[in-house]
Amino acid sequence: MSESTYAAFPFDHPKADIILRASDNIDFRVFKLFLSLASPFFESLFDIPQPIEASEEQEIKDGLAVIPVSEDSKTLEILPRFCYPCTLAEDPNLEQLKDVTDVLEAAQKYSIDAIERKVCQAVSNPKILEVEPLRCFAIAHHGQLRDETLLAAKYTLRRPLIPTWFEEIELLSAADLLALLTYHQRCGNAVAHYESEGACSWLSGRMPDGFRTTCGCPRSHVPRYSLFINQTPQWWDDFMEETFLALRDKPCKATIRACAERTVQSVRAQDCAACSPHIAEGMREFSALFARKVEEAVSQVELELKF
What we know:
This protein is mainly alpha-helical. The protein is built from 12 helices and 5 strands. Helix content is 49%, strand content 6%. The longest helix has 23 residues, at 174-196.
């Protein structure tokens, strides 16, 4: 075995009273008191009298007992910092998801609740969820963090039904991934119900103030989505058809906003004197209504979890 080396500050303190040796042979000089106060596991471990002399069962280094752990030095660089007072070490930043999985497993192993709460905050951070919802889902699911798993699942609805490869996918079993895909599909089906419900009867009496009932835009010969008193403009039918189709794959309010923005640009390009000045206002108002209906439908769909 190669000779071990000490970790950098603050885990090289000369007054530390125990050494944790990482799996990659890096030694962390730590204080038993701080770890015991934060972790029932360490409290019980350190209650066992530590030998002061080396033996076949116990290594002694620089007068301190050495306790080998299965975590690597990268994880140990983070873990004890949550146990230390801020005068010795600041809490590490867990915004990098690649660090979260190992830290969460170690936190649960050593019963360090403060770290688990910090991990929960990381995987439920909207800024991270918007960019990496599938990774957040996998990490939360693997750690059996129920609320965070359900939240991340809703954010995955902003992605296509069939995901591409992502980091941490191996944390999910085939059954776990199938449950997520089934949830996604059921959400899409729930939203699609509004398309066929009495020819969109939910639209009745919901015309936004920004829309105009008469204009020079081309009209739909067979209107499917009744909103206008007079014959429906073709752009309206096109918008609704495009949106419902997109919602099958991404059943979320972001899909509605994206389709509405394209419609605004398309209508303005037609330069209709009646529609162009008011289309943005009307679509913004209607999109808010539509988004509420989608959220209502999705909220009724449950993700099957085994924990």
